[in-house]
Design a protein that fits this description.
Bound molecules: S-adenosylmethionine
Number of strands: 7
Structural class: alpha/beta
Distance between the termini: 37 Å
Helix content: 40-55%
CATH topology: Rossmann fold
Strand order of the largest sheet: 3-2-1-4-5-7-6
Radius of gyration: 17 Å
Number of helices: 9
Amino acid sequence: MLMYGWMKWVEIAPQRYDWAVTVMTFGRLDHIKERIANEVRAGDHVLDIGCGTGTLAVRCLRKSAYVTGIDSSKYMIEQTQRHASEAGLADRLVVVQDSVTQLRKHFGDGSFDLIVSTMVLGEFPREYLSYVMRDCRALLRPGGRLIIADEVLPDRLLTRIFYAIGLGLLWIPNFLLLRRPLFPIADLPGVIRAGGFQIKSIESWAASSFKMVSAESPILDAATPGMVP
Ligand SMILES: C[S@@+](CC[C@H](N)C(=O)[O-])C[C@H]1O[C@@H](n2cnc3c(N)ncnc32)[C@H](O)[C@@H]1O
């Protein structure tokens, strides 16, 4: 949430958003977005949840994917469109301005090969996350992939204590400025698993509160006991 607090602050000064996020994450988030884009296959239909200014969406477009970005902020959606147009890739981009709770209003079951999201889920309480994960599973084709990178509560006790202190110090100014709480994700793999996904890999970085989880939507076999297609 330390990173989230800062990111929410720079959303208020949007023209500096991308630059400020690169600086405040020491380039880590850009590196993570590169890693995610490297998982994209040409022709994939990709959904970027909470696409922000489109820095991940454009990376996926560069990999010859068809990309849909959804974000509740009009400004962010416009930035995504602008960045895709500047890259000459806007013909494979669709943007939707709406909440992540409305995914199934816009997209049919099995519409996507890959769903990605960076630094968004920590804005929601846990029950909201379970709901979003279930929707993601429905929107992915069987065998489709989900890659989520987010700021999480550190695993190590000592780091978790320092993190909690920082969080406590920032909580009041955050709330006063943003008028909303932020929700540290304690168990990102658990949230994804509870949505019905099979975890493929979990990555974290030293001295960082980022975690990246890759998962797959199971290919259900009606003959498998207990499997309901
Ligand atoms: C911290 S920014 C991250 C943006 C981008 N994914 C990135 O990594 O740079 C969080 C984004 O989530 C969007 N967002 C917040 N709540 C949302 C909601 N309920 N539905 C859709 N988007 C939401 C915000 O507008 C913002 O663009």
